Amino acid sequence: MLMRTAPHATSSSPATQTRPAAHAPCGLIEAMGAQIPFARNAEIYGEGEPAEYVYKLVRGTVRTSKILADGRRQIGAFYFPGDVFGLEVGDEHSFSAEAISDVTVLVAKRSTILARAARDTSVARHGVRASAAGANTAAASARITSWQPAGT
Fold first, then answer.
1. What contacts 82, CB < 8 A, 6 or more positions away?
2. 30 in Cβ contact with 8 (< 8 Å)
3. pLDDT of 57-112, one tens digit each?
């Protein structure tokens, strides 16, 4: 859920300069995105909401999760500065995203990035790498959060 939009300001923070290029589709999020701050515990988007935007974390930490039928929370992944999240195969978010701390997120329209990827194969390649990186992050988080000590 987006609450407010602010014009994008170019950031030269070390966190955004040291991330591999595979984490952002050819800088499109930086070029087309708007910086939006979210307070600690704020929902960035909800499970089942339209996946209209792609997000890049500038500052803070974000967690994706979903509530299971039995009421337990399943953690999808944790995201840190430089990570891209919100990329979905379908048209809706399969997890909710929540700010663990005060965060700043770059937000860009998914349709704009997909249209550019259709015209520019280098953008498409970077998008595939970002998706794969997100899948690896989610898989690692799922392994960590699903572990339980013996006898529980």
1. 15, 16, 18, 19, 23, 24, 56, 57
2. yes
3. 999 999 999 999 999 999 999 999 999 999 898 999 999 999 999 999 999 999 88
Phi and psi at residue 73, to the nearest 5°: -100, 130
One-letter identity of residue 15: A
Of 138, 118, 114, 126, the C-alpha closest to 51 is 114
The predicted model scores a pTM of 0.66
Strands 53-59 and 103-109: antiparallel
Nearest alpha carbon to residue 76 among 123, 135, 133, 130: 135
Specify burial of residue 54 (Cβ count, 10 A radius: 0-12, 13-18, 19+).
Answer: buried
**Residue 37 within any structural domain of the chain:** yes
- Residue 8 is assigned to a structural domain of this protein: no
Domain of 66: which CATH number? 2.60.120.10
> Phi-psi bin for 99: left (phi > 0), alpha (psi -120 to 50), beta?
beta
3-state secondary structure of 136: helix
- Spell out a b/e string for 70-87, using b for 16 or more CB atoms within 10 Å of the CB, else e: eeeeebbbbbebbbbbbb
